[in-house]
Write a structure and sequence with these properties.
With 227 residues, this protein is an alpha+beta fold. Helices cover 45% and strands 13% of the residues. The chain contains six helices and four strands. The radius of gyration is 51 Å and the shape is elongated.
Length: 227
């Protein structure tokens, strides 16, 4: 007994705060099924039909067996088993992750309880006994706990709680860096076309201008003859 309690305590410390919230919501939802969910009222003839006795009895979720109560019980137990497996470091993958599954479980519980309020269990019509069944306050507590379970699943999903890894799982393949592509050989530049540079031509010498700029040579100076 001591070893089992120690194991439970160790697993509880292994869980994250979001997983603990989901576990508490699932446990509370399971215990809420012992609360009065329904109220059976009616009458019955007793003493060989000479007197009328009133029937007024509260019934839990286990007292009225149907698909709804059975589905809620299976969902709650499934969430507890999932969290226990995670605390034991069991490695497996669920579609969408643990948070999505737990959130879906809480929403499914809420839908089932809402459906049960619209489609109540049938009463008894057994000879001199005629009763009808209504809902009690316990079913509303279960509805709120289903919402708490869905919220816990949302927290697990938002916090990205990692799943345990398999101990003997092969290491992930190393990322291979693709080899660089071979550089294309440089393309030969097209032959440059010969550029013909036009040389500037000297302006023609204007003979007229040369004529205007030319001066007559001075006459030769000769001294006067001495007397």
């Amino acid at each position: 007994m001591t070893g089992a309690l120690a194991r439970i305590g160790r697993n509880w410390r292994t869980l994250t705060s979001e997983q603990r919230l989901a576990a508490m919501a699932a446990l509370a939802l399971l215990l809420s099924m012992l609360l009065p969910w329904y109220q059976e009222t009616g009458s019955a003839l007793v003493n060989n039909g000479k007197s009328l006795a009133r029937i007024d009895a509260a019934k839990s979720a286990f007292g009225v067996y149907s698909f709804v109560e059975a589905a809620i019980f299976v969902v709650v137990v499934g969430v507890l088993v999932l969290l226990w497996a995670r605390a034991e470091r069991k490695a497996f993958h669920l579609p969408g992750g643990d948070g999505t599954v737990i959130m879906g479980a809480g929403l499914w519980v809420m839908f089932l309880i809402f459906y049960r309020q619209l489609d109540k269990p049938n009463g008894r019509k057994e000879g001199l006994i005629q009763t009808s069944i209504g809902v009690q306050w316990g079913i509303f507590i279960a509805f709120l706990l289903g919402a708490l379970l869905a919220y816990a699943g949302y927290r697990i999903r938002a916090s990205h709680v990692p799943e345990p890894l398999v101990d003997d799982a092969p290491p992930p393949p190393a990322e291979t860096v693709p080899a660089p592509a071979a550089a294309d050989p440089p393309s030969e530049a097209p032959d440059a076309e010969d550029t013909v540079v036009a040389r500037r031509r000297r302006p023609p010498v204007d003979d007229t201008l040369d004529g205007q700029l030319s001066f007559d040579e001075p006459a030769e100076y000769r001294p006067p003859p001495r007397g």
